[in-house]
Amino acid sequence: EIVLTQSPGTLSLSPGERATLSCRASQSVSGSYLAWYQQKPGQTPRLLIYATSTRATGIPDRFSGSGSGTDFTLTINRLEPEDFALYYCQQYLRSPITFGQGTRLEIK
Amino acid sequence: EVKLLESGGGLVQPGGSLRLSCAASGFTFSGYAMSWVRQAPGKGLEWVSGINDAGGSTYYGDSVKGRFTISRDNSKYTLSLQMDNLRAEDSAVYYCATHPFALWWGQGTLVTVSS
């Protein structure tokens, strides 16, 4: 199976700063079959990005995804207070579908 | 408005069975592949199983293969997960979602496997 490793485990930043979250795959995720989700405490996950860089409906343009092969990045520009949450990457190139272990974005 | 409403969770003893259901509305259910994704308390997301739009192809994670069965009834807009031979490590909130990436999620149903 494709193992996804997210880094850092926890990222401490202030509102207004830029967040860069990394997702590294154990094998190439060709075809851009990678998604990103946001989850806030007590809430259901929400799709942010699919196909590596396509924003889901209603997602602000301060969220962007990039990458290829085995290295992918979620960038959040100008952090808003509501952006502090847990973020997961997911590959759907090959079954079994797998998620990364998550990156917690916390307020510094 | 898209809605996915899971039901069927609860407390079950190890080795027991449970059947989860997901009632879909607000979209053309037969046009979407669907998945079950679970999340143990305080843990990350784990994909469990998927099924294509027509129901003819099914997919399972290694941890549930041979114990869980996914199915769907497009006429009733319903997705199901039959869970047999349950183990303590199957305890989690189970979400119904689209496949292969989760465009929409349900609110989840809690499954607790304990004696």
- Name the beta content range of chain A: over 45%
Number of strands of chain B: 10
User: What's the SSE pattern of chain A?
Assistant: EEEEEEEEEEE
Q: Tell me the β content of chain B.
A: over 45%
**What is the number of helices of chain B?**
0
Report the radius of gyration of chain B as a whole number of Å: 13 Å
Enumerate the spans of chain B where pLDDT stays under 50 for 5 or more consecutive residues: none
What general outline of chain A do the C-alpha atoms trace?
Answer: globular
SSE class of chain B: mainly beta
Shape of chain B: globular
Distance between the termini of chain B: 40 Å
**Rg value of chain A:** 13 Å
Indicate the multimeric state: heterodimer
Portion of residues within helices of chain B: under 10%
Q: Can you tag this structure with a few keywords?
A:
heterodimer, A: 108 residues, mainly beta, seven-stranded mixed beta sheet, four-stranded antiparallel beta sheet, 49% strand, globular, B: 115 residues, six-stranded mixed beta sheet
Question: What do you see in this structure?
Answer:
- The complex is a heterodimer of chains A (108) and B (115).
- With 108 residues, chain A is an all-beta fold.
- Chain A is built from no helices and 11 strands.
- In chain A, β7 and β8 form a beta hairpin.
- Chain A is globular, with a radius of gyration of 13 Å.
- The model of chain B has no long low-confidence stretch (mean pLDDT 97).
- Chain B is 0% helix and 50% strand.
- Chain B is an all-beta fold and 115 residues long.
- Chain B is globular.
- Chain B contains no helices and 10 strands.
- Chains A and B meet through β4, β5 and β10 of A and β5 of B.
Give the gist of this structure:
The complex is a heterodimer of chains A (108) and B (115). Chain A has 108 residues and is mainly β. Chain A is built from no helices and 11 strands.
